[in-house]
Design a protein that fits this description.
39% of the residues are buried. The longest helix is centred in the middle third of the chain and has 15 residues. Strands 8, 9, 10, 12, 13, 14, 15, 17 and 18 form a 9-stranded antiparallel beta sheet that branches. Strands 2-3-1-4-5-6-7 form a 7-stranded mixed beta sheet, sandwiched between helices. The protein has a two-stranded antiparallel sheet with strand order 11-16. It contains 8 helices and 18 strands. About 6% of the residues have low confidence. It has 2 domains: 195 residues, P-loop containing nucleotide triphosphate hydrolases (Rossmann fold), CATH 3.40.50; 85 residues, Translation factors (Elongation Factor Tu (Ef-tu), domain 3). The protein is of the alpha+beta class and 339 residues long.
Length: 339
């Protein structure tokens, strides 16, 4: 089966998770009588995500369209979770950039787009929420073009498709419609994913090799090592070598292999290069480690994750306590408190 690996990137609340909901529903992942069919924010699975309406952890899901499996990875939309974004982009060959039709490109959008362009991902732009009362579609398009001109690493990246969407209604158009109530679905974006995003460049004839891009855990299988198979194929029960970031080697036996179908993990006996899998049985796997064929262990380049930062500003007091004496007043005392 053909494969496309696509990340969805956007600023907080620009509608990327809602767009994924539409992909899942329109690709017939759910029956119409299933609870998830009428649910919103399907991909935001933990309590904080649903409560705050943001995505913290990168999720993997997959849909099938025209005999092509599309692995969709919903990335965090907040700067605080930048490491998750980088690991996500490492598994993708293309990205859907979702931008609010009123707000336009936001700071986090620029950060993630820059990383995606540096990695050579093919970008599909979706201008979402075009039905908002204060939408500024033409203004936003101009801002997007300015952004690509500023950040593109080669001229080919300046040629990107743009689609107009109302994700909450599952609608998208190649041209801005005059009547937003007209019948439409997400077919234009599905077609673009197949025609514009390349299939993974992976050699299935070589020995198995995979970079661990994410970890997960549950009470039944223990630790899952997740990533895209770089080359070869992996089979349940084989012995592999874990090449850790600190150059240590250890052998382990693969207990189970899972691929994504919809929101479910499906247990399979074999997975091929280019697909995104979750493997169990490798208890000491860490992010950035390589899982490789035991007879020909070769490490992949380590993912360089941007370190988290803490920004602190010291300024005049503008709080309700202004004018009141504090306990610690001198610069030395403040420094000791910070340290």
């Amino acid at each position: 089966m053909n494969i496309r690996n696509v990340a969805i990137i956007a600023h907080v609340d620009h509608g990327k998770t809602t767009l994924v909901d539409g992909f899942l529903k329109q690709s017939k992942v759910f029956r119409e009588n299933e609870a998830a069919f009428t649910q919103s924010l399907i991909l935001d699975s933990n309590d904080q995500e649903r409560e705050r309406g943001i995505t913290i952890m990168a999720k993997n899901t997959a849909v099938t369209y025209n005999d092509t499996k599309i692995n969709i990875i919903d990335t965090p939309g907040h700067a605080d979770f930048g490491g998750e974004v980088e690991r996500t982009l490492n598994m993708a060959d293309g990205a859907i950039l979702v931008i609010d039709a009123q707000e336009g490109p936001m700071p986090q959008t620029k950060v993630v787009l820059k990383k995606a362009l540096e990695m050579g991902l093919k970008i599909i732009v979706v201008i979402n929420k075009i039905d908002k009362k204060d939408a500024r579609v033409k203004f936003v398009i101009n801002k997007i073009h300015d952004l690509f001109l500023e950040m593109a690493t080669d001229t080919d990246q300046l040629d990107f498709p743009v689609y107009y969407a109302i994700a909450k209604e599952g609608k998208a158009w190649q041209e801005l419609p005059s009547d937003y109530s007209e019948d439409a679905d997400l077919t234009p974006i599905f077609d673009a994913l197949l025609s514009f995003v390349p299939s993974p460049q992976a050699d299935t004839s070589k020995s198995f090799q995979m970079l661990v891009s994410a970890l997960d855990r549950d009470n039944f299988q223990g630790k899952y090592a997740m990533g895209r198979i770089n080359r070869g194929q992996v089979k349940k029960g084989i012995t592999v070598t874990l090449l850790s970031r600190n150059s240590k080697k250890e052998n382990a036996k693969i207990e189970n292999i899972f691929i994504n179908q919809g929101l479910k993990r499906v247990n399979v006996d074999t997975a091929m290069a280019g697909d995104i899998v979750s493997i169990t049985g490798i208890k000491n796997a860490g992010i950035g480690d390589t899982i490789s064929d035991s007879e020909n262990p070769e490490a992949l380049p380590i993912i360089n994750i941007e370190e988290p930062t803490l920004k602190m500003s010291v300024s005049a007091n503008t709080s309700p306590f202004v004018g009141k004496e504090g306990t610690f007043l001198t610069g030395r005392q403040i420094l000791e408190r910070i340290e």
